[in-house]
Amino acid sequence: MTAGLCAAVMLGLVAMAVFIDLDTGDRVASIIGAAAGLAGLALALRQGTAPAPPAPVAPPVSGARSVRAGGSIGRAVTGDGHTLTHPSPTIPPGIAPAPGGAGGTVPGVPGERGVEAGGSIGEAVTGDAPKQDGPSNQP
């Protein structure tokens, strides 16, 4: 649409310069250029003052013990009976988030004990630890 309008204006100005005279074409082109500049300025000011669109809202997490984070997760534990003895994994800085993820751009939500992150996941423990029957025989 805009390209067609610009082409029509250009052809009209060329026709005016050829069939009428160059002075008239020059004055008309100056007026059209000033009007286009003012229209561009008005559009730029309108865009600059328009409120930003609201951020997309991620669907709620569904399922028992689900975890969702907008950034990276070092460790997520959703299982029962775990004794964690080592430190949580560290996510190196500068790792780009995976496409989609917790921003809601990929359809679906984590189900029961599901883990979803907008960045990296260092460790996710979603199952239950083995149950201990009686005292341990190990020293």
Low-confidence stretches: 100-107
> Count of helical segments?
2
Percent helix range: 25-40%
Q: Approximately what portion of the residues adopt beta-strand conformation?
A: 5-15%
Number of domains: 2
Largest sheet: 2 strands, parallel
Which structural class matches the secondary elements?
Answer: alpha/beta
Task: Based on Cα principal axes, name the global outline.
Answer: rod-shaped
Structure description:
With 139 residues, the chain is α/β, with parallel strands linked by helices. It has two domains: 46 residues; 68 residues, no CATH class. Helices cover 33% and strands 12% of the residues. A two-stranded parallel ribbon has the order 1-3. The chain has a two-stranded parallel ribbon with strand order 2-4. Helix 1 runs antiparallel to helix 2. The longest helix has 28 residues.
Compact description:
The chain is of the alpha/beta class and 139 residues long. Helix content is 33%, strand content 12%.
List the helices and strands and how they pair.
Elements lengths: L1 H18 L2 H28 L17 E3 L3 E5 L37 E3 L3 E5 L14
Parallel strand pairs: 1-3, 2-4
Helix pairs in contact: 1-2
Which short descriptors sum up this protein?
139 residues; alpha/beta; two-stranded parallel sheet; 4 strands; 12% strand; rod-shaped
